[in-house]
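Lecture 7 notes: from sequence to structure.
We start with the chain below.
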Amino acid sequence: MTTAKHSYTVTGAGHVLGLREGDITFDVGRAPHIESTLRIAMPTADVLAALDPRLTRRVLIAAASTFSTMSPQTRTFDLGLRTRRVAQDGRTVTLTLASDEALLDDFAPLSDDTGAFAHQSSLRAVINYVLGKALGAALEASPTHDEDVTVLTDATNLSPNGGFRSTTAGWVGGASAALVRTAGGPPGVGVDFFGRAAMGGLNGGGVFNIGGESAGSTAVTVGAGRQYRTTLWVRSSVAVTVSLNIEWVTAAGAGAGATTGTPVSLAANVWKRVEVIGVAPATATRAGTYCYRTAGTWPAGATFDAAAHRFSEVDNVLDDLPFLFFDGDTTDTVQYGYGWSGVASASAATRKALISRSPDMLRWQAGRSALDFLRPIVQAYGYRLVCDEHRKWTLRDEHYDPGGALNLRQGVNIRDVEDTLTRDSDTWFDAAVTIYTWKDSDGVEHTEVDSFAAVDPPTQVRVFERPGVPYPGPGFSAYAVRRAQGRGRMLSAETGIDWRAQPEQFLSARVDGAPILAGTIQALGYDLKTGDMSITTRTADIPPSAWVLIPAGETWLDSPVGESWKEEII
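Predicted structure tokens for the same chain:
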């Protein structure tokens, strides 16, 4: 039998503390991921004053163990102080500690924060934005998991011929420049043609427009007091400064004013995207987009190109980021379907979201904790955001493997064991329904339902209520069902401390009255007084014949059979 000797050094707020007893626990299904309770001898008055959780104090636990049959082991834990309680007898102090998810739950913005919209092409970037703002932290490079979390919204491009698919209808060259439809366009934008105006010898002024300076050719209908956003890709054969404007026009054809964009410098022969946002004046009924050179005369032979025009009404400019070009001929994707409202290349284009993913998902509401903001987004894609005992943040999926493995054997290294089978819906289920309810920035209440079943018909349905959580798109219910499939059989065991043990680590177990079990560690606890380690796992039954297939001289976990089961269960 293995004998062990354990020693601990506990340091809090820079002072060594006298540990009496305590525990450290991990739980895969909990945030904070790590919690600890320590009972220490009453320190001096100055040390006690320093152990004030309101000052965001850290407590370091250093463990060292020697074993009669194994090599020495060490492990350290850097945890945040959450609570300090002084015993009535004045002889001991109890400290409760937690990993940094607790700090993430402490932080919330004082006003709505829309900074995540700028990072929505990457889940990792959104997480790092929040971690950086709340804690000055960032994700570890590995695991490298990432997803596109761009919000999806229906939209209309009012520009009837923004892609120059077949003609230049609706477009004219400014300052009497000749206009020609030409093959090509800015790379990666989704257009195959652009319009080119011959500008050589012309003075500044108008360069390019839809609708033009002539009200009669203005093709876009607008509503007074509504907000519009227009964008255009432009290129010049010479370096120039240009400005994109919206020209507003009345029903009578008179000018109703203009919204002038910020001047933009163009390098010669380089495509650049320009845009402007404006509110239609009270007298405006139509509008045109007009891009022009702010000053100067074009040299002989100079040309100016325009492509990928979009003109859309927006309730909130953040609801449609990134503001990308589309028309009715844009190729459908798994996220969007595209079409024309009328005649192709002569009518407004429509974009329909095929997946519901609310823009409110990325609106970090005032008073909502950083943890509550990130959790539904992360879970919708089947991930968990975890901070370990070294304050390292990782994004983990259901196949996360910290490495190593544990072998538990009744009568060998198990002191106590409990094998539980259940169909309790809180633990095991084969279908899930998740109900999201929230209010948008205008106070309008929304409800979305995400459901998933592993079998048809399902036999046990779990309902998750998500009040106040904007819909992040489908995914959480499927993730929850997959995780629950391994929880119908739970193994709780007690053994001696092994500091190499990790949550989500693979293990095999042989216990009386049960088939061979394999699974992963869900909860892990260390008792610093007794030297005991408690483990709770989700396990699967392994056919006894699997052992027969193991080559002579190999352990089960080292064998191809064991590796295949490990891959399936993790």
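Points to note: The two ends are 31 Å apart (CA to CA). The chain has four domains: 1-99, 105-153+359-397, 156-352, 405-421+489-527+546-569.
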